[in-house]
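Researcher: Last one for today. Full complex below.
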Amino acid sequence: MDPVTDALEEIHHRLGALREGRVADYIPQLAHADPDAFGIALVSMGGNTYRAGPADTPFTIQSVSKPFVYALALGDLGPAELLRHVGVEPSGNAFNAISLEPGTGRPANPMINAGALATTALVRADGPAERFARVLGCLSAFAGRPLDVDEEVYASEAATGDRNRALAYLMRSAGSLRADPVETADTYFRQCAVRVTAADLAVMAATLANGGLNPVTGVRVVAEPDAVRTLAVMATCGMYDGAGQWLLDVGLPAKSGVSGGLIAASPGRFGVAVHSPPLDASGNPVRAVAALGEMARRFGLHIMHNSGLHAATVTGAERVERAGRSIAVVTAQGGLEFTETEALLYALRDLTPPEPGRLVLDLTGVSRALPGAATALAAVLADLVARGHRVAVAETLRLERAAAQGHAPTWAVFGTREAALTWAAGEDGA
Amino acid sequence: MDPVTDALEEIHHRLGALREGRVADYIPQLAHADPDAFGIALVSMGGNTYRAGPADTPFTIQSVSKPFVYALALGDLGPAELLRHVGVEPSGNAFNAISLEPGTGRPANPMINAGALATTALVRADGPAERFARVLGCLSAFAGRPLDVDEEVYASEAATGDRNRALAYLMRSAGSLRADPVETADTYFRQCAVRVTAADLAVMAATLANGGLNPVTGVRVVAEPDAVRTLAVMATCGMYDGAGQWLLDVGLPAKSGVSGGLIAASPGRFGVAVHSPPLDASGNPVRAVAALGEMARRFGLHIMHNSGLHAATVTGAERVERAGRSIAVVTAQGGLEFTETEALLYALRDLTPPEPGRLVLDLTGVSRALPGAATALAAVLADLVARGHRVAVAETLRLERAAAQGHAPTWAVFGTREAALTWAAGEDGA
Amino acid sequence: MDPVTDALEEIHHRLGALREGRVADYIPQLAHADPDAFGIALVSMGGNTYRAGPADTPFTIQSVSKPFVYALALGDLGPAELLRHVGVEPSGNAFNAISLEPGTGRPANPMINAGALATTALVRADGPAERFARVLGCLSAFAGRPLDVDEEVYASEAATGDRNRALAYLMRSAGSLRADPVETADTYFRQCAVRVTAADLAVMAATLANGGLNPVTGVRVVAEPDAVRTLAVMATCGMYDGAGQWLLDVGLPAKSGVSGGLIAASPGRFGVAVHSPPLDASGNPVRAVAALGEMARRFGLHIMHNSGLHAATVTGAERVERAGRSIAVVTAQGGLEFTETEALLYALRDLTPPEPGRLVLDLTGVSRALPGAATALAAVLADLVARGHRVAVAETLRLERAAAQGHAPTWAVFGTREAALTWAAGEDGA
Amino acid sequence: MDPVTDALEEIHHRLGALREGRVADYIPQLAHADPDAFGIALVSMGGNTYRAGPADTPFTIQSVSKPFVYALALGDLGPAELLRHVGVEPSGNAFNAISLEPGTGRPANPMINAGALATTALVRADGPAERFARVLGCLSAFAGRPLDVDEEVYASEAATGDRNRALAYLMRSAGSLRADPVETADTYFRQCAVRVTAADLAVMAATLANGGLNPVTGVRVVAEPDAVRTLAVMATCGMYDGAGQWLLDVGLPAKSGVSGGLIAASPGRFGVAVHSPPLDASGNPVRAVAALGEMARRFGLHIMHNSGLHAATVTGAERVERAGRSIAVVTAQGGLEFTETEALLYALRDLTPPEPGRLVLDLTGVSRALPGAATALAAVLADLVARGHRVAVAETLRLERAAAQGHAPTWAVFGTREAALTWAAGEDGA
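Model: Here's the assembly. Have a good evening.
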């Protein structure tokens, strides 16, 4: 009994009947793909995997490799330097468009072929062999298992890859590619021919959704800011010429590939992957697009939909009598981001009178706090203490360490609410 | 003492020194704007307002009106019908670009002038006077106070508005506009000349961030899905030709106007507005863009950054001895969306053995649950009961009502954890 | 018995069977045109008219008016000033394309609607009524008879002319149009609704081919350089998006209109017009395009085909004994342009030895000489005389007048070859 | 003493002072070109050469090779087949633009690099070595002397030719190029590195102007229709993005190259070439463009300027009394093309009454007649004879041979006017 699997299976069952689209046929190896192959996998931030249909069928990753290699290059060069070579604007064009910026020859974004070629060429390495080894290593780390290359697909891609060679030559002539064009195209063909399953892709997407930390293996694959940047680029450039419609309908950063793979990432929630070879006119897998739309509607996952659930950070703001003294007690729970911290500080301010008094802040239900939140909180507490309040905090977050960096931590810290209350009701209060 | 205000003031102070950009001068009324005017306002989901600089200086709303009127038209026509008239794809062009879809004459998106004209013309009304009254009413509801028109600016816009009239004629000739072109342009000029302050715009943005419910007045202005759609369109089309870079750097849906206004919305968190007349080459206010970038970095607000804080839904999963019986106790807190529910169900499944046992689910810390979450939870509980488990739930969410729609609610419900534990340890358990 | 008419009739007969294309139907008045209407007319430089089919059926001139009004505006403003407002580059786009130059808003050329609107607006006049009167007067002078307006077509064009109004507004907003947009469009609609016949259009085209002098009425309509410029613009911009193919196949400057008219001009030879309403996908009349291709092939009229016929300028270069003296005699005929003059001068140089001798230049067969040719010839003759030659010229061209402007005309001039020979054989020779 | 040379030298002298433009520097071998090098050469249809400045300085032909190799390919494939691979429309873009037709991948025209690469690859040959040998042989035949390759320039072009390789790969991937991309680019680099002088280029241009027959060597290099087609393509596509302006101002088909060469051809008149390395922003040689403009103005060479000089074909149309009989005598001279024939036939018809009479047609001054003209004339004469006229023709054109192909040649033919008159006045007349 598992409602997530239930939902995926219901979607899988219904969309299995969808008979639209055409399997890519520009090379025989892709044309032979089974049009009925249809697998879904979802990996949560806790590393749990849910599946529907055969999610272990191998296929080549193709363009779905692009965001992951982009994240790798972000780590190698840093965002500013990488931006000098590869743009981040949607091109409004097909995947193999020649979208080079006039003047600089910079490709529009890393999700079109030109940008992907440039990105691959920028991965730091001594020569193409090491470069591909790093690319394969990166993809494997995202997937959480060693991946390999489908040599037959690679050979076919290489045999028909004139357009990508053309793009590479164009970029070298424009000065936006330093590497050898033929070698660069070759590395990229190998990258596209890396073999994955829907389950692999779901782990890879979940790793991006989890800020670069693989939720299954626990390994940090890329730095968090680079995962965030990669998702941002996927949001505007990942779905070719329908980026606006996709973000409107599905509301998740995504990337598709010509072999029928599609990934989407819900930041902080999960990664999902669908495999189904038949493609629509834009080159996106028909069943995968429909499945994601269905999941978004059903699970309420739209990135612009953030329905105020987090507002319940402050679960209590009351006055408690203890030992004949009135103590203001503010209780909070959950994680402290901007919004939660704002709500907490607002409650504190509201409850504490101008004249000195007694305050207990119960943070034992708070699981984690962003550094900024901790700093802000410490500042407010220090201010209250300075104004004569007797302040006790029950917490396990080690707020004092943040606070110590700027303010004298003169409030008392306890491990439990009870201990804090007891101390706050003590003699030496205001 | 208020760290949010502190941060805003620090940003305001630092960026006040920025002397780049040029005040728009295509009409004298805009050219006279004070280049030093610089106000910031932020409104949280709790309806709290934070300010830095003069946030009550009036100026005309200009293009910042576009997303709000789009949300209004979404409600009038529904998304499918509106999409037939106005696209949602980034145009990669300047604000006054002629981005009409070949064949249909449909403007690319509602954030460029052509799309805004078409959107305004679609607002349901008997004639232009009523149409503008509805537009003004909508903007006022978003702002939470009655707004009015700067008649002088309106007159100047009307006198120099040939390009917008041209766009309207083009669309009527292409069949994508039914209304009279000159009247449509006139209504749009009045819409752009509506007078607002930075504080107003922050409330308006916060209303979008809050799913269409004005967090200050408590009035629902537009339906939640329409607010979500509007934010999605802002994310890809709101910042003219730098949408990709903006989403990468700032990571928030936004919209700017030629009079120096800029809004951004952090879904479920806050709305923010900056007013500063000098514009950069793309037509975006220089200080406002810098301020948003700074806030995003400082507050960690990037929409793709969702750092797993919510994962701490399950705060306890343990076995408790009570009255000599071993009871599995799962404790959760916060809001239950997809991710939280998934984590909770996973914990339940993990802790309950195949053979019948005793289970307490403590949801007293759970503030709210999406309907889907409640349904899924009820299904799992019903299944456990059916398999012979003795299940008690401590909650105030009325899960049973959701459950009753599909499953016999045979588990026990209590208001406190203690009561649930006591009952779970009772005689008639497994 | 007339071979030109024979050829036209044969072409007319054969192409009458062509059943492709569709009559324009954007207004009912055009949609009612008879698809079988098919007339051809050709007017030679001598003013002779040849016809096949009904060449007197009236129809509205539509876009065929564009080159004539352009020629009028060239006269009003001069080419440099007109170029500041209307470009001369092919746009590679459809007739109603928005081809405004970035920055200036200048339309690409006067053969697309935007350029035609701008051109009409530049015709010098006090107000729209006088402006249209001048346009109508110009078209009538080209046709050699008073033309009038089809008021019904005009009214329909005005009722459906939003796109042209849009173009006019766009240009005024871009600063490339000063006049009132609605008035400008209205004048242009009247211009397009002027009623002509195929025979009229042939006279009009012949007037351009004849350097602006109407070969039927003998009236100079526009200055010769302006006629030449107009033909040059027609050559690159007249046939919409197939300019290159048209110049390759037909090799004549041409212009077509939506009502089925097509004109072509063979400079210095003739003007031709065809009327046949069904249009191809590019908006050009199917039978007219085919008829022109046929004529070009059959008559050898390609503008790049200039088959050396003129090389026979020098018909004799010999030594003649007269009165015991050897006289070099050079005989020429025809017109003297650059090439002919070059050939003549070369023969003179070739036949005259370094030492002084006797020379007769028989130009009695020369019908006309360009001023530059006469000047060059006079210079060479003066040089020969200065070097001691006894030179007699038989001519009626008044070469001496050209010569007198720079050289002492010391050669003898006679009306006949015989007189020249007699004098050249005289006593006082070298 | 030579006025043509005088004019060229005057232009050369004046423009030598022009100091604008920049020598191409993308390879060192071009960057070293002397910016003061400035030579002009003109070759007439009679094969005479005129020069100003050093016209024998060698430089590489670069893009000026394009029209000549296009003419060669026209002969190899025929125009219809070649058109399937290379279009003929102006691209409105820079010389190295990627103007491939959507769908087919066909380059826009043979004057841009993509089209030139495709054209070179289509030259029939067994392998690249033979292909280049044929290209070199063709260029040499146009120049009238064996040309060779500047190996140093070739090597540099090859080293920096990535953009051309990119274009070749793009075309192969689009299916519009079958040959090996790297080999094709290499052949093209060698073609561009062929060494010529201004004098060579003038002969080459004159050969095109002369219908493909080299006027200096007398060798036919390409068929006349192919020369005409090549000039038509030069007229619309030869001067990059200023084709319309060039045709307006100069009115001659032309082609420029990056090493400073520029050719122009006046059909039936001459070919001209200028060499001057500094280029303007469009990549055209500054002094060469100015020199051509000057020549066009001075010599009256505009292709749309055909000033009615040929109208004087009929030099006499009179009634002569001879032996008491009235004889209609029509005298003509010059070449008989369409226009001249039309004028002659018109005079014949005008002078001959319905009732049978006597007619002499004096064609002794006619130098040449197009086949169509001879046929039309023979038809008219046969008709007159059939109607009972006594017709004598004085001519040396062998009209009867054309006539015999369709009509009984029953008119009398004589070598002189006098003999014709005598016979026409004879007894057996009407």
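Chains D and B do not touch (no CB pair under 8 Å). The two ends of chain D are 57 Å apart (CA to CA).
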